């Protein structure tokens, strides 16, 4: 059995690890720096030094689901709810384009106010701005995904959250793991760039199951993989749980980079929330994307998936300057392209 350092060295070039090998690395904290540096080199070799910024619009915090970890869950009565009108969303997108964003990410709870016609109206109008459009609005039918695509959507983010079916179904009452997978398959079939990801540090989540998550992303050929710690929210049934750790989240992300060299990996806001400068550390450990918030005013605070969300008190104009400054300070640059995944020949 190889040691963790040997496994990391090999995986930097083979881009392969099995479940047991991933667990060995996750368990062993003695070679974290080697892991992060190897992931950083793979990132540089395959996706380069450019960081893609995606402007995130959180357009509604109303959700019909009840995920136990999430502050937007329908049963949370301690949250003031909001939803933006279609034209308000389009206006925010216009401002985001003025700030220089080349991708608009539209995220919300599962809010039935946004009918297919409303979504088609929003998507087609934002598309006129010559940007890539990413949706992150949950589980929909094949027909709905198809209609969004035809209206101009390019990408879709839907995290598997965990590949442990039982854990998923315990934490997401009324939801089915097979249905979540069906969504990912439909999106792929429709030609979207597909993003998935998971929460790190869920109650009863094992290292083996985190290894399965990484292998799952590889198996489905995910184009984007968002990973972040689970952060307990006071207003949810998981309020007394411990939550995920920064180092473990970073390790899962770095191993994901080793195995999927040319995929797009964001340095997530949840990482920044539990560790100051967490996004920059993530950018130096395998990540190549940041999704700054372009939601305005009070709504930023009201989109409370978890507490203490980084940058919730800032303005969109501040965020773009702040993150650009940080990116250039570590010798990287902000991309001026739409930042689609560029498939590279994997050299071993
Ligand atoms: N409703 C859509 C999109 C919004 S939720 C969906 O569920 O797909 C976006 C992501 O926020 C979820 O996928 C989940 O991984 C993350 N999230 C929710 N609650 C969280 C918490 N307490 N800590 C960290 N991330 C959380
Ligand atoms: Fe709704 Fe998404 Fe939160 Fe689940 S994770 S409650 S679907 S917003």
From TrEMBL:
Q: Which gene encodes it?
A: hydE
Superkingdom as given in the UniProt entry: Bacteria
Protein name as annotated: [FeFe] hydrogenase H-cluster radical SAM maturase HydE
InterPro entries listed in its UniProt record: BATS_dom, Elp3/MiaA/NifB-like_rSAM, FeFe-hyd_HydE_rSAM, HydE/PylB-like, rSAM
The UniProt entry, under PANTHER family, shows: 3-METHYLORNITHINE SYNTHASE (PTHR43726), BIOTIN SYNTHASE (PTHR43726:SF1)
Give cofactor(s), names only.
Answer: [4Fe-4S] cluster; [2Fe-2S] cluster
Keywords from the UniProt entry: 4Fe-4S, Iron, Iron-sulfur, Metal-binding
Q: Which GO terms describe its molecular function?
A: 4 iron, 4 sulfur cluster binding; transferase activity
